[in-house]
């Protein structure tokens, strides 16, 4: 600013700093009016805040701006610290960062509009110099405001995450739940949907040249973001790229069919966002019974995975037979032994499984890509080896249970 040390800058023959000082009360009002008109989030703030803290900050910033016009000196560290503190308060109040930054730019525009019409032709050089100084001002102010905001948000996030983790631990162990909820500032719902999640691999995790840890963390971040978007309320979770536990607040332990359908849609959505298959075992429970529900949900998930169920959401009712057959007992062992004469994974075992699933020979033949007579021949061989006829209603139920027991035994020798 070496060419302008006379007054530094003049518009309309008057020093710019003098013009702004005279306009200060009107500028404060105009800036607040323009911000609340153009930034809806500010218009929704309480009146006492707009005419209290926000007005005070606006006046302080404008005085700092006037001093810069008078001296040409950019804001000091002390001035920037003041803006950081103001931004931290906006973060505490929950205003989005883009809204906070927009307010500063709107304020600069209001000031510039108040000055620009006063510029004479011979003062164009001063106008360009002022414009350059304003850009330098925003260059310093924007990161200071952003840093103050983000530092506070991170501190709030860390506190919230710690409190939620403490509450989640209390729920999963069944100890001191009301006290943990009080410390976290989270009211306990009537019930939780407890999800045990298994998350498959994203293609990037196996791609040559790609760090699988980074790919897995990106997958998890997308999953969490979609979960927050899909579910309102204080969702509690402990997740890794491979899965984990999620507690979703729900109004009652007795879940309606519509609510189960909604949950299934949420799991599909987070799977799409993650770009990986997601399977969940689910149980509903009151807060004081979450520990038992979590153990049940984990068992249901284990059964769904062991029996190669399609990706989706499973309750105990969805896997009752598989659940029972996954528990070792003499009866289960004897059921599995019924198919002992058949080669594991062989064509007889495969044909029996497809026939029982499809219910008749022709659909089974289409699924196997063979002639229906071939299905009949193989089922006769099954009968000769096991003494059980798949076309007999009574035998079909026994064979279905035997197949499941055989699969359970193969998955868990």
UniProtKB/TrEMBL annotation:
Residues 25-164 form the RsbT co-antagonist protein RsbRD N-terminal domain. Residues 348-405 form the PucR C-terminal helix-turn-helix domain. It holds the Pfam family HTH_30. This is Transcriptional regulator.
């Amino acid at each position: 600013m070496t060419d302008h040390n006379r007054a530094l800058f003049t518009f309309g023959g008057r020093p710019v700093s003098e013009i702004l000082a005279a306009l200060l009360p009107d500028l404060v009002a105009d800036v607040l009016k323009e911000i609340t008109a153009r930034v809806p989030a500010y218009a929704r703030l309480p009146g006492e805040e707009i005419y209290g803290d926000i007005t005070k900050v606006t006046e302080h910033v404008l005085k700092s701006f006037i001093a810069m016009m008078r001296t040409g000196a950019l804001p000091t560290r002390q001035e920037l610290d003041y803006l950081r503190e103001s931004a931290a308060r906006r973060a505490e109040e929950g205003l989005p960062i883009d809204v906070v930054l927009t307010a500063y730019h709107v304020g600069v525009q209001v000031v510039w509009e108040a000055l620009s019409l006063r510029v004479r032709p011979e003062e164009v050089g001063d106008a360009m110099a002022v414009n350059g100084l304003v850009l330098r001002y925003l260059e310093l102010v924007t990161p200071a405001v952003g840093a103050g905001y983000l530092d506070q948000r991170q501190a709030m996030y860390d506190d919230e995450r710690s409190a939620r983790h403490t509450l989640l631990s209390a729920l999963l162990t069944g100890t001191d739940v009301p006290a943990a909820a009080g410390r976290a500032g989270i009211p306990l719902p009537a019930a939780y949907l407890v999800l045990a999640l298994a998350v498959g691999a994203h293609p990037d995790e196996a791609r040559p040249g790609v760090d699988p840890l980074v790919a897995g963390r990106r997958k998890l971040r997308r999953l969490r973001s979609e979960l927050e978007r899909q579910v309102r309320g204080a969702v509690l979770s402990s997740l890794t790229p491979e899965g984990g536990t999620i507690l979703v607040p729900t109004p009652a332990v007795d879940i309606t069919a519509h609510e189960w359908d909604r949950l299934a849609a949420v799991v599909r959505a987070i799977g799409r966002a993650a770009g990986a298959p997601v399977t969940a075992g689910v149980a509903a429970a009151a807060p004081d019974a979450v520990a038992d529900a979590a153990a049940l949900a984990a068992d249901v998930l284990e059964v769904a995975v062991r029996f190669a169920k399609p990706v989706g959401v499973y309750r105990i009712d969805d896997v009752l037979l598989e659940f029972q057959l996954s528990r070792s007992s003499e009866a289960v062992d004897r059921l599995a032994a019924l198919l002992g004469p058949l080669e594991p994974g062989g064509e007889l075992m495969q044909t029996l499984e497809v026939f029982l699933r499809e219910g008749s020979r022709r659909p089974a033949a289409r699924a196997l890509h063979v002639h229906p007579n071939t299905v009949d021949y193989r089922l006769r061989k099954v009968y000769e080896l096991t003494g059980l006829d798949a076309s007999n209603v009574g035998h079909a139920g026994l064979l279905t249970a035997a197949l499941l027991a055989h699969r359970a035994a193969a998955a868990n020798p």
